[in-house]
Design goal:
alpha+beta, two-stranded antiparallel ribbon, 52% helix
């Protein structure tokens, strides 16, 4: 019915129609961005896990989910 969702993401205002917006999809895209950044900063799954305060196995699963590879 023409409603929109506005989200401030990293200083950029993002606009989504209600029909195209999915919280699950949005959170997945944020998670992937975080992992990409962490890969550049830390380079290994143990350091990434420590920085994110999660298990190293969870980092490995998430990297695989998004098709991201360790350097």
């Amino acid at each position: 019915d023409g409603r929109f969702i506005f989200i401030n993401h990293g200083g950029s205002l993002m606009c989504y129609s209600e029909q195209e917006f999915s919280l699950k999809g949005y959170l997945s895209s944020i998670e992937k961005e975080i992992l990409e950044s962490m890969l550049q900063t830390y380079g290994n799954s143990y350091q990434i896990a420590g920085a994110l305060k999660v298990d190293q196995s969870q980092v490995i699963r998430r990297l695989q989910k998004y098709g991201l590879a360790l350097p």
